[in-house]
Amino acid sequence: MSVMKRLSMIFKSKANKALDKMEDPRETLDYSYQRQLELLQKVRRGVADVATSRKRVELQINQLESQTSKLENQSRQALSAGREDLAREALTRRNGLNAQIADLRLQYSNLQGEEEKLTLASQRLQAKVDSFRTKKETIKATYTAAEAQTRINEAFSGISEEMGDVGLAIQRAEDKTAQMQARAGAIDELLASGALDDFTGQRDDIQAELDRMGGGQDVELELARMKAELGQGPAPQSAIEAGQQGQAAPAAQQHTQQLRKPGEGL
């Protein structure tokens, strides 16, 4: 295949595709229906013309028949008056008119047959046009419904794609939120353990020392508790209990001294 033929085929295919895209079946159907109406109108005008010609021939026949009747009467009158020559002339003219009437009757019969054919063709064409109009409206309604359904499906498809993008955005936002929450929790744990300094608080060196001492006492209490469970020592006492016992001993000594009498020794 030559280059020119290939280019011609490509251009034709492109043009055909563009025409298919531009063509609206509803407009094409309306145009076809309009053309059929025009053809039907032409057939009807043809029927009317033939009927007019037939009617004109009919009028001519009637006029000639009237003239033949008149010539026959004139021939009788001439013969009664002894004018055989005039009677013969009148009959001759009458016979000529009868020949014309015969030709006109043949023409009239032909026109009548043509009129009947055209009338039948017009009726058939009218039936086809009516049937095409019904089918045309049905196809147009179906096409319109299909077009609307296509637009709805395209809208749903666009919404689905948009919702997919929204879903991805939501997923990314949730992932970032989870990462921020995990990071905040880790920082809180580091601050609580002392691995990071909390510059937003009002802590000082004394508070830090007290916190360290408290942490050491907790370890000692846990070690004493484990020894007591193994039977290697008495039950441990917390710092509060030890403090209460320390306060109770001086109070007991003071109460004993108050009970003693003056001059009594220990």
Structural class: mainly alpha
What's the rounded overall pLDDT mean?
76
Count, helices? 5
Principal-axes shape call: rod-shaped
Strand content: under 5%
Pfam family, one: PspA_IM30
Family: Belongs to the PspA/Vipp/IM30 family.
Protein name: PspA/IM30 family protein
Biased composition (Low complexity): 237-257
Describe, in plain words, how this protein is organized in 3D.
By secondary structure, the protein is mainly α. It folds into two domains: 15-172; 207-242. 87% of the residues lie in helices and 0% in strands. α2 runs antiparallel to α3. The longest helix is centred in the middle third of the chain and has 110 residues, at 84-193. It is rod-shaped. The N and C termini lie far apart (137 Å).
Write the layout of secondary structure elements.
Blueprint: H1 3-22, H2 25-80, H3 84-193, H4 205-229, H5 239-259
Helix pairs in contact: 2-3
Short description:
87% of the residues lie in helices and 0% in strands. The chain is mostly helical. Residues 237-257 have a biased composition (Low complexity).
List keywords for this structure.
single chain; 266 residues; mainly alpha; 5 helices; 0% strand; disordered C terminus
